[in-house]
Design a protein that fits this description.
Elements (H helix, E strand, L loop, with lengths): L1 E2 L5 E2 L3 H37 L7 H6 L38 E10 L3 H8 L6 E4 L6 H10 L3 E8 L20 H14 L5 E6 L7 H13 L3 E4 L8 H7 L4 E3 L2 E2 L6 H18 L1 E6 L3 H16 L2 E3 L8
Parallel strand pairs: 3-4, 3-10, 3-11, 4-5, 5-6, 6-7, 7-8, 9-10
Antiparallel strand pairs: 1-2
Helix pairs in contact: 3-4, 5-6, 8-9
């Protein structure tokens, strides 16, 4: 502070102003930087909240690595090829189950190996049909148990598949190289072993059933005994049902294979597909095998379908 010439007190502001100016500038810059950081964080969080979750496209899902958990044991029937992706129950959309009437016959192929599988299927409490392969170790016991429990039985006739002999066939099976006399003798032998059979279907036979002349010999024996024939359709060009109808026999063809993949979820889906066909057409025939996964799926689905209006019938009810 100083005194001017006219006697007034004069304050020297220049020196103090120079000292405060850098501090003020620094504070302003710091405030701007902090504000910009907070603003940027806020905008980033807002954008993240607005982002939709990533959902892979169908093409991208196709490229994803296969599931490692609960992979099914792929057991493919010797005479047909699995063409369906393994089905997992947890991936099924939740939707109401359809209801409605329809007749469904379920044939259990390859029966005659053991009693436990036969009893497990019978205990489900739903009418089915046992297709029994002649010559298996427990044929007599399985037939007797089926008869005692009211289960229909038919012959499951082993026939030559494509790729034989690399593809295994039972020793008592029918080969294309056999004469008509040999084929007739073998079929009559099957009937002597299982006289309770009311009909027959083919076991394997993708090659044999395509041959009209050989099938006519087999069907001639069955017709003579009053039996019907179910064409398992192990070949898309099987002649079984066509020749049977030409001969005036009662016959039919299967609608669905249930267990070409041994996975409970997949088999359950196939059972529901068979039921859908039965509702649409009035009747359907499904074929499966006494595998553990199959028995589990049947025990799960058949009582539900019965409650939803499906009537389970022996396959003899659906031949015409």
């Amino acid at each position: 502070m100083a005194t001017s010439r006219n006697g007034k007190i004069r304050v020297n502001r220049k020196k103090g102003g120079r000292n405060l100016r850098p501090v003020i500038v620094f504070l302003i810059i710091a405030i701007l930087i902090i504000a910009s950081v907070f603003l940027a964080d806020s905008l980033f969080e807002q954008k993240q909240l607005q982002r939709k979750p990533y959902v892979p496209s169908a093409a991208e899902r196709h490229k994803l690595p296969p599931r490692q958990k609960n992979q099914p044991n792929l057991v493919v029937h010797e005479d047909y090829t699995a063409t369906v992706v393994p089905y997992h129950e947890e991936e099924r959309p939740v939707r109401s189950r359809p209801r409605g009437s329809g007749n469904l016959a379920i044939i259990i192929d390859d029966m005659g190996k053991g009693m436990q599988e036969a009893r497990s299927i019978i205990d489900i409490g739903v009418p089915v049909t046992f297709a029994i392969i002649p010559g298996l170790p427990k044929v007599r016991q399985v037939v007797q148990e089926a008869q005692r429990r009211g289960i229909e039985t038919i012959l499951h006739i082993p026939m030559e598949p494509k790729g034989y002999p690399e593809r295994r066939l039972e020793d008592n099976g029918l080969l294309l190289s056999y004469s008509s006399e040999e084929i007739s003798a073998r079929v009559n032998g099957y009937l002597r072993e299982i006289p309770q059979a009311v009909g027959a279907n083919n076991h394997m036979g993708s090659a044999f059933t395509e041959n009209r002349d050989k099938m006519a010999v087999v069907l001639g024996v069955l017709r003579g005994k009053g039996l019907f024939f179910i064409d398992s359709k192990t070949s898309a060009i099987s002649t079984g049902e066509t020749v049977a109808r030409e001969m005036g026999m009662r016959s039919a063809s299967r609608s669905v294979f249930l267990d070409n993949i041994q996975d409970v979820g997949y088999i359950s889906k196939q059972v529901r597909q068979a039921a859908a066909i039965a509702r649409k057409r009035g009747g359907a025939i499904a074929i499966c095998h006494p595998h553990p996964a199959t028995i589990q799926a049947l025990a799960l689905e058949l009582p539900k379908l019965r409650d939803e209006g499906i009537t389970f019938v022996p396959v003899s009810s659906l031949v015409r």
